[in-house]
């Protein structure tokens, strides 16, 4: 069986076409193909199909789609249903061979073409790149409806096609085929009026064909288009090419599109921006780095490499994503990383917090407006729609090497308009919602600090000598903070504000669940508020399940025991637990590859938040002695046993609470 995505979606079983006709089936199959041989989570597929408002029957409908796809892909042979499209923990995986997908063949030929160019084997490069482009049958997935996640993949495919086209034309120019490519390039600049590389190649082709005056006209057309549409001048490379044509130099060459062999880090000379007397201020929006940044060295090394290293067939801008629970230090790590690599981006850095303290996502259109103003664009030239502003920002980035930091992203739909389209720009993203399925070069699910790192951070805030004197108690404080850097800083600030406060006393206060949230709150870290933002995004059934799970005496459970507690089937339980893990109310502490063997555990600070939240919500609905909840079920006054503590009187606990499915 062969799959084709470079154009319209096609599924071929030998000579017989078996492409699904139903739009949703095509959408699911396309997503699985683009994530081939990798697990696609159920929640990702639901988000892709229905966005932020899935129907109540979304899970069962998705399972129906999977069943129908299995019948198509296995040619109705029941025994092979699970071989091609497998059910995995939390999702599905489409398993195919490398040669079954045309995209794999395209990427292989593109990489071979790039490698041949670096070895100056121009004939071979031209052949490989032409063969790669021959696989395309039109716009990528032109007949597939694309949601937020799939749209990002489609955009990436189109960028790859344009990149291959640039490289193939460069190969032709090196081989002296300048007359043959003039017509093609004229068509390309009409279809892509802001794609500067095609203009430069056309100028070279015309010049070498003895049509210098026409090449100069092409430059004037490019300059007029850029100034009128986005308010910027052509890049330094194109301006130098123009000057060489004015001077009647015969050595004009297209700008090199690939780094020389042996280069790893970015070649900052590729896109040097012209400096002039008018523009003296570059965007430099990064917040200051913190002087006592602690730990994370292994993660930092990986992130620096992902953000700055050039890959041979790179056609998309590097994007690194840092995800994690509230207080784990995502923003601090992103800002620290940005300061480490900012010298590789001489044209500036952009920064934006995409979710305010009220939890409302920032408007991408307004973010783009602020950024474009920072590039010295005229206000009157800025379009009103976010889509057009995004195009203008990407056009500006095509001639500049910049670093972008998007902090606390809410969704893929929010950040997609803010991403550059040029491979010489890098984006760093942080998100507490995970953004699972978002395409990026490097994803880091940030873990809490180790005990040693936490103690070092506590010493940096409260004084190393003081911490060394009471190291055992300092370790207890870090444990109660669960290794969260912001919680450790809050504890350190508490110690700094009270120089005579013994660490033993602080550790004893943190050991008391009644006092811990209060003691760890600070102006920089409000645990209750941080988790409250995650809680507000849960659906009512997920909130009910969260309460029921937290009212258990056991802090660890599997799918089966969770389903029994919540009162639902295994599949529904899995969907809910996946969502609660994504929101950082639960974590996975054991998994050996089998779905039924996944072990979940409760995050202690999240447990304290949820317990307090439950008390507040129940108090708002009824009396302290007996509170009505969901169709007349009741709760009695008695505390549940929590992690490491017995039940205590005077607190709320379930008496006979069942989730209404």
Automatic annotation (TrEMBL):
GO BP annotations listed: phosphorelay signal transduction system; regulation of DNA-templated transcription
Gene3D superfamilies referenced in this protein's UniProt entry, alphabetically: P-loop containing nucleotide triphosphate hydrolases, Tetratricopeptide repeat domain, Winged helix-like DNA-binding domain superfamily/Winged helix DNA-binding domain
GO MF entry, a single one: DNA binding
Pfam families, per the entry: BTAD, Trans_reg_C
Highest taxon of the lineage: Bacteria
DNA-binding region: 1-96
Compositional bias ranges of the Low complexity kind: 639-651
Domain OmpR/PhoB-type residues, every copy: 1-96
Signal peptide (from-to): none
Region named Disordered: 636-661
Keywords: DNA-binding, Transcription, Transcription regulation
SUPFAM superfamilies per the UniProt record, alphabetical: C-terminal effector domain of the bipartite response regulators, P-loop containing nucleoside triphosphate hydrolases, TPR-like
InterPro entries the record matches: AAA+_ATPase, AfsR-DnrI-RedD_regulator, BTAD, OmpR/PhoB-type_DNA-bd, P-loop_NTPase, Sig_transdc_resp-reg_C-effctor, TPR-like_helical_dom_sf, WH-like_DNA-bd_sf
PANTHER family the record matches: TRANSCRIPTIONAL REGULATOR REDD, TRANSCRIPTIONAL REGULATOR REDD-RELATED
Entry similarity comment: Belongs to the AfsR/DnrI/RedD regulatory family.
Protein name: AfsR/SARP family transcriptional regulator
Organism: Nonomuraea mesophila
Lineage: Bacteria, Bacillati, Actinomycetota, Actinomycetes, Streptosporangiales
């Amino acid at each position: 069986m062969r799959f084709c995505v470079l154009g319209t979606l096609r599924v071929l079983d030998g000579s017989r076409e078996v492409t699904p006709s139903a739009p949703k089936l095509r959408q699911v199959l396309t997503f699985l193909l683009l994530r081939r041989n990798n697990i696609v989570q159920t929640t990702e597929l639901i988000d892709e199909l229905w966005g932020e408002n899935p129907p109540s029957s979304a899970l069962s409908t998705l399972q129906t789609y999977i069943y129908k796809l299995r019948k198509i892909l296995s040619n109705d042979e029941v025994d092979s249903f699970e071989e091609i499209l497998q059910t995995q923990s939390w999702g599905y995986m489409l398993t195919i061979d490398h040669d079954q997908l045309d995209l794999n063949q395209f990427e292989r030929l593109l990489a071979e073409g790039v490698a041949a160019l670096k070895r100056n084997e121009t004939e071979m490069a031209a052949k490989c790149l032409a063969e790669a482009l021959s696989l395309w049958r039109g716009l990528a997935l032109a007949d597939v409806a694309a949601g937020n996640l799939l749209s990002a993949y489609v955009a990436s495919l189109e960028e790859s096609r344009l990149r291959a086209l640039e490289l193939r034309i460069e190969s032709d120019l090196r081989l002296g085929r300048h007359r043959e490519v003039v017509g093609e390039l004229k068509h390309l600049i009409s279809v892509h009026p802001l794609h500067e590389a095609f203009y430069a190649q056309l100028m070279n082709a015309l010049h070498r064909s003895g049509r210098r005056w026409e090449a100069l006209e092409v430059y004037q057309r490019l300059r007029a288009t850029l100034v009128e549409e986005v308010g910027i001048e052509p890049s330094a490379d194109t301006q130098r090419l123009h000057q060489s044509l004015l001077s009647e130099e015969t050595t004009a060459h297209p700008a090199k599109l690939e780094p020389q062999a042996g280069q790893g880090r970015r070649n900052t000379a590729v896109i040097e921006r012209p400096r002039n007397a008018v523009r003296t201020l570059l965007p430099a929006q990064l917040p200051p780095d913190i002087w006592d940044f602690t730990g994370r060295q292994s993660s930092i090394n990986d992130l620096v490499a992902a953000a700055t290293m050039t890959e041979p067939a790179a056609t998309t801008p590097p994007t690194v994503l840092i995800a994690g629970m509230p207080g784990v230090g995502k923003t601090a790590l992103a800002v620290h990383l940005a300061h480490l690599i900012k010298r590789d981006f001489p044209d500036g850095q952009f920064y934006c917090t995409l979710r305010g303290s009220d939890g409302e996502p920032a408007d991408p259109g307004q973010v783009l407006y602020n950024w474009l103003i920072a590039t010295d664009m005229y206000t009157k030239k800025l379009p009103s729609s976010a889509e057009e502003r995004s195009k203008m920002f990407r056009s500006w980035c095509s001639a500049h090497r910049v670093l972008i930091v998007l902090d606390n992203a809410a969704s893929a739909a929010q950040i997609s308009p803010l991403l550059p389209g040029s491979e010489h720009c890098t984006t760093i993203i942080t998100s507490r919602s995970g953004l699972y399925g978002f395409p990026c070069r490097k994803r880091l699910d940030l873990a809490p600090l180790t005990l040693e790192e936490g103690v070092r951070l506590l010493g940096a805030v409260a004084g190393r000598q003081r911490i060394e004197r009471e190291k055992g108690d300092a370790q207890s404080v870090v444990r109660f903070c669960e290794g969260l850097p912001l919680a450790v800083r809050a504890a350190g600030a508490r110690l700094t504000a009270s120089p005579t406060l013994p660490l033993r006393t602080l550790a004893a206060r943190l050991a008391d669940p009644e006092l811990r949230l209060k003691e760890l709150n600070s102006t920089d870290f409000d645990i209750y508020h941080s988790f409250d933002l995650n809680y507000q995004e849960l659906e009512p059934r997920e909130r009910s399940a969260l309460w029921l799970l937290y009212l258990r005496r056991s802090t660890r459970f599997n799918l089966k025991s969770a389903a029994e507690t919540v009162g639902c089937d295994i599949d529904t339980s899995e969907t809910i637990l996946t969502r609660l893990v994504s929101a950082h109310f639960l974590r996975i502490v054991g998994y050996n590859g089998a779905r039924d063997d996944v072990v979940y555990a409760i995050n202690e600070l999240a447990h304290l938040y949820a317990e307090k939240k439950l008390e507040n919500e129940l108090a708002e609905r009824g009396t302290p002695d007996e509170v009505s909840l969901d169709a007349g079920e009741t709760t009695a006054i008695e505390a549940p046993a929590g992690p490491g503590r017995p039940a205590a009187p005077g607190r709320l606990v379930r008496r006979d609470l069942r989730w209404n499915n």
